Amino acid sequence: MVCPTMKLFSVIWIIIKVREFGVYNLICFLQDARREEMLVNRLMRQSQQERRIAVQLLQARHEKEVIRKNRTMREKQYEERRLKEFQEALNREAVSVKELYSISLKSCLLFHFNYLCYLYN
Questions:
Q1: More confident residue, 25 or 54
Q2: Does this model's pTM top 0.90?
């Protein structure tokens, strides 16, 4: 809201300018001033939008970096899990081979024992 003193100042300023420039020139001057004010406001809005866009761009870059780090970490976890599962499979296979070897060794020994018993009886 404009105070009465400012209104009076504005009226006095207009009267002085009318006397100085004439009515037509004053209208042109005021139009130019209005255009200039509109241009400054537009540039300020654009500047604010540019700042907002810059902030959004920085946020997007940060999010992209977080996504990249998460993907790298997840791939590392997958690799560790695959290696662990492979090692467990190797361990299970080793146990199976030992059991099979033990069984075949026992059966071989049993066969030889029976054979020796047969020979000496």
A1: 54
A2: no
